[in-house]
């Protein structure tokens, strides 16, 4: 089981709303007590919240299915059902929430930032709330609405001030261990580092974080090696530091070539050209490496990048390096706007929007008319089709919304097939009743318009 996970797919299910209650008040000497059914409770939401103490998505890798609590049904005597419990899912700072198709829903930055990823279903209205002057004692109640169910992709982009990039075994892990209290795994073979390591460094009064990104190789931006998997962790860095192995014996390798290869991969990945660069010429405890570092220093500085000859093993040159990092970080922090929690933008549906569309479609069984819209689809989900009075009430609501008039304009005739919704659609054989109303009600739970 991995100890660090930076990408997971979460299967989220919000709570279902509780059903409304159809009840009539019964008391001695009060034969007409009236409806007293309470409303169902709201289903719980699934909420993502940024927690500074959370650093990995490991918990969600182990348990990717999360569900909020359901609302409870309403009861008689005007007792409303309890709301379902929300579920709070803690995520690290810098988590990007997206759909499986890649659409970014939110970039969660800043402690306490919240995103309602899946909304709970509305509770159904009890018959007390459905009573009106025309329908004085409804014999039905509305069903609770199902909660939203969706899959989201969480990607963690580490928030570090300095990102260390370089070939495998260039000494990035050793350098982090030397300048901070982090203790990453260190060994003399490629791809020792399988997960990004974060270290906290103090230089004078400046405190900053350094990220050791797993080794890049040529072609990393196209998926070779491990670099492409972890390049996202350098996107938020204020500066990038090339860690160059000056003691390598591999043919075709030299400091400037290594830098050019890494720069080419960063350019292909995109979005990192504006970050300041530092070059760390590592392993100068080897005499030949020290000579090579002094030889290429001029070429590095000719590009406008400061170069530092260091030895992570011998701890040589680290003080000057960390103070330069602190200077770069301080300048970046001074120039950057103040970080605020992500502002989640809500885009409610305009109040004057009819909220539905009607299209004529074709299938192997013939033509039919499809009605799509938030209101009619929600009303259908909340209708108890075993109760004729509830079905009649749905017909009245659709007529008042204008669905029947639009069906007439679209060319629908009596007996035509009408589908409301998408995959879980409800199919009707349409019977026009533009002048729908409740004046033809029979006994409780019936509607004489449906007797035919």
Automatic annotation (TrEMBL):
Residues 60-84 are annotated as: Disordered. GO terms for cellular component: cytoplasm. Its cofactor is Mg(2+). GO terms for molecular function: GTP binding; GTPase activity; magnesium ion binding. Residues 160-330 form the OBG-type G domain. Residues 2-159 form the Obg domain. Its main location: cytoplasm. Keywords: Cytoplasm, GTP-binding, Hydrolase, Magnesium, Metal-binding, Nucleotide-binding. Mg(2+) binds at residues 173, 193. GO terms for biological process: ribosome biogenesis. It is found in: Cytoplasm. Residues 348-432 form the OCT domain. HAMAP family: GTPase_Obg. This is GTPase Obg.
């Amino acid at each position: 089981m991995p100890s660090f996970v930076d990408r997971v797919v979460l299967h989220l299910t919000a709570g279902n709303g509780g059903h409304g209650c159809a009840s009539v008040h019964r008391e001695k000497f009060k034969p007409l007590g009236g409806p007293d059914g309470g409303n169902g409770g709201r289903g719980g939401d699934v909420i993502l919240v940024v927690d500074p103490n959370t650093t990995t998505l490991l918990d969600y890798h182990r348990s990717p299915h999360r569900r909020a609590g359901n609302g409870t049904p309403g009861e008689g005597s005007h007792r409303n059902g309890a709301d379902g419990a929300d579920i709070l899912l803690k995520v690290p700072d810098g988590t990007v929430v997206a759909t499986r198709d890649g659409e970014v829903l939110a970039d969660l930055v800043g402690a306490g930032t919240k995103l309602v990823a899946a909304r709970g279903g509305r509770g159904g209205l009890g018959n007390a709330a459905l009573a009106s002057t025309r329908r004085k004692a409804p014999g039905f109640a509305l069903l609770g609405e199902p909660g939203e169910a969706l899959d989201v992709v969480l990607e963690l982009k580490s928030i570090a001030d300095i990102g260390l990039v370089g070939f495998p075994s260039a000494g990035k892990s050793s350098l982090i261990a030397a300048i901070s209290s982090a203790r990453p795994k260190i060994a003399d073979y490629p791809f020792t580092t399988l997960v990004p390591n974060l270290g906290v460094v103090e230089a004078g009064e400046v405190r900053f974080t350094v990220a050791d990104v797993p080794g890049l190789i040529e072609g990393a931006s196209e998926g070779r090696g491990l670099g492409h998997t972890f390049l996202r962790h350098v996107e938020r860095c204020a500066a990038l530091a090339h860690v160059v192995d000056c003691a390598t014996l591999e043919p075709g390798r030299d400091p400037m070539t290594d830098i050019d290869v890494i720069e080419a991969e960063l350019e292909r990945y995109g979005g990192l050209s504006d970050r300041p660069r530092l070059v760390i010429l590592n392993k100068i405890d080897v005499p030949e490496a020290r000579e090579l570092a002094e030889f290429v220093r001029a070429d590095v500085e000719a590009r406008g990048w400061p170069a530092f000859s260091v030895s992570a093993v011998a701890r040589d040159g680290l003080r000057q390096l960390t103070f330069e990092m602190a200077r770069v970080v301080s300048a970046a922090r001074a120039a950057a706007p103040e970080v605020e929690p992500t502002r989640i933008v809500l885009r409610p549906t305009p109040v004057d929007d009819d909220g539905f569309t009607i299209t004529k479609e074709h299938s192997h069984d013939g033509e039919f008319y499809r009605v799509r819209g938030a209101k009619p689809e929600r009303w259908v989900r909340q209708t108890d089709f075993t109760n004729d009075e509830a079905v009649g009430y749905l017909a009245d609501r659709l007529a008042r919304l204008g669905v029947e008039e639009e069906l007439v304009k679209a060319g629908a005739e009596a007996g035509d097939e009408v589908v409301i919704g998408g995959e879980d659609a409800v199919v009707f054989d349409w019977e026009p009743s533009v002048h729908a109303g409740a004046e033809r009600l029979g006994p409780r739970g019936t509607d004489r318009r449906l007797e035919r």
